[in-house]
TrEMBL record:
InterPro entries: P-loop_NTPase. This is Sulfotransferase domain-containing protein. It comes from hydrothermal vent metagenome.
Length: 302
């Protein structure tokens, strides 16, 4: 019984993989949901985390020794909290190594420019009020944390997992492959985990992704609505006006006027911010990726 650990990254099709791909009971045993993963591995403070308890919980969910199922632990929470700089990503990798033993590691990534846009939209969706410029460049006071663009230098986490589980047990797959050729994504993953080609005729589900992001034209209205509704990013909003905030939020998802112009402005700002920042990292990451990242829009160095 092989164990596959999929610790993210965020915004790379992880929800689809958890709710569709890894729910295929012909092949996979998805051992924990998000709440269980958080409670078992992520939320405990270093002084409260119990290796023995976590190991026992994982062992109890493993499939039978003679099973052909692939046991799976999948949660983007395991690569850290983006909005505080993913500062726990290293310790979470070490916790996983301490409690699982041998495993195959799948990291899913995304080209950094669309990743930055998607993360900012997620921030606003979840209650954030900063502009894109402030979100990308904000420097908190000493002792406080914030989003850091370095978290998308993906090779750092891939290298750390390689140092723990062995480089031969690390696979990095781009979201762009998942979108453009889902069957190829599936076949590469299964060959990596099992060492064998897929049984002829076996294919992956064509069910579409489930996540919905607001249109970029909705950002101004959403930022205002976030003053009036309690959210994970802003739990102390003026809740006496929460009905107004909820109404504005609902309306914002229908806003299409000005979307092209807003998209162009966001793309221009992110290009200026990201150009030259990630090429070295992506070039180092390539050794874990079986397809050419530069062909998929990733900045690399020749």
């Amino acid at each position: 019984m092989t164990l596959l650990i999929h610790p993210g990254f965020h915004k790379t099709g992880t929800t689809w993989m958890q709710e569709v791909l890894f729910k295929d009971e012909r092949l996979f045993n998805l051992m924990f949901d998000q709440l269980e993963t958080d409670a078992l591995l992520v939320r405990p403070h270093d002084f409260q985390f119990s290796k023995q308890d976590a190991t026992a919980s994982i062992d109890a969910r493993r499939s039978a020794a003679d099973s052909n199922l692939i046991d799976v632990i999948s949660s983007e929470l395991l690569c850290g909290n983006m909005f505080s700089g993913s500062r726990d990503s290293r310790i979470l990798a070490e916790r996983l190594f301490a409690v699982t033993g041998p495993a195959k590691i799948l990291l899913t990534v995304r080209a950094q420019r669309p990743m930055l846009k998607s993360v900012y939209l997620q921030y606003v969706k979840r209650g954030g009020r900063k502009s894109l410029t402030d979100f990308l460049n904000f420097e908190p006071e000493p002792g406080y944390n914030w989003f850091r663009p370095e978290i998308f230098e993906f090779h750092h986490l891939a290298d750390h997992y390689a140092s723990l589980f062995g480089a031969q047990n690390i696979l990095v797959l781009p979201q762009e492959l998942l979108i453009g050729d889902r069957q190829a994504f599936f076949e590469i993953l299964m060959k990596f985990v099992t060492g064998e080609a897929l049984v002829e005729g076996m294919s992956v589900s064509n069910e579409k992704g489930v996540g919905i992001s607001p249109p970029s034209s909705a950002i101004p209205m959403l930022r205002f609505a976030n003053l009036l509704r309690k959210t994970p990013v802003n739990p102390e909003a003026m809740t006496s006006f929460s009905g107004v905030g909820d109404l504005l939020t609902s309306l914002s998802y229908r806003m299409r006027f000005g979307r092209k112009r807003k998209d162009a402005n966001i793309s221009r700002e992110i290009k200026s911010f990201a150009d030259g920042r990630y090429g070295v990292s992506n070039t180092k990451l390539q050794s874990y990726v079986p397809v050419d990242l530069s062909d998929l829009g990733y900045e690399t160095q020749s």
